[in-house]
Specification:
Blueprint (H helix, E strand, L loop, with lengths): L7 H7 L5 H15 E3 L2 H28 L5 H27 L1 E3 L3 H23 L4 H56 L1
Antiparallel strand pairs: 1-2
Helix pairs in contact: 2-6, 3-4, 4-5, 5-6
């Protein structure tokens, strides 16, 4: 086992001061790690999702208006609930396409969160308002299948977020060790 001199910890603590240059380099690497620059093809993919979200909002709006009085109230409510979620998805996709940047710490969790909230609301409506027939059972089963799919996306997103936090901490430790190594080398050299 390696023995350290008693004053090693004191020397390390004195060397703990962070240099501005090292901090700036660390911040740039963290930003590069959390920010994905999109190429033209990827930006067009987000434009597609924007248009898809807008098309969904239009279809849900039309369905809510057209089904009013034709379907039970919960059926119209489901179409109406889809409109703001489709618009939110379209807005986020448009922002990503416009900026050309995917912020890995915020954008994917926001998209997964939108999907999760929508599906939970819909499945709750299905559980409360589903008719006592095979149609109600099919509605509930379909909703639960989507709920499981979104839960898998949420878990994958949480795993990716944990990986990003781990990479960030490892990078921070790496820069601190490099800085400490430089400072200890300088103190031994003088």
């Amino acid at each position: 086992m390696t023995q350290f001199s008693p004053d090693l910890s004191e020397r390390l603590l004195r060397c703990e001061i962070e240099t501005p240059a090292l901090r700036e380099k660390y911040e740039k690497e963290v930003q590069a790690m959390f920010e994905k620059r999109l190429g033209p093809a990827q930006r067009w993919m987000w434009v597609f999702w924007t248009l898809f979200g807008l098309a969904q909002a239009i279809v849900f709006s039309w369905a809510a208006v057209a089904s009013f009085g034709q379907l039970p109230g919960w059926g119209t409510l489901i179409f109406a609930i889809g409109v703001p979620f489709a618009l939110a998805t379209a807005g986020l996709s448009a922002w990503i396409a416009y900026t050309g940047r995917l912020l890995l710490k915020t954008h994917p969790p926001a998209i997964a969160g939108l999907m999760w909230v929508l599906i939970v609301i819909l499945v709750t409506i299905f559980m409360v308002a589903a008719p006592d027939s095979i149609v109600g059972l099919r509605m509930l089963l379909s909703g639960l299948i989507f709920l499981v799919m979104v839960a898998v996306f949420m878990l994958a997103g949480r795993t990716e977020q944990a990986e990003l936090r781990t990479k960030e901490k490892l990078l921070e430790i790496e820069y601190r060790l490099a800085d400490l190594s430089d400072r200890i080398g300088q103190s031994h050299g003088s």
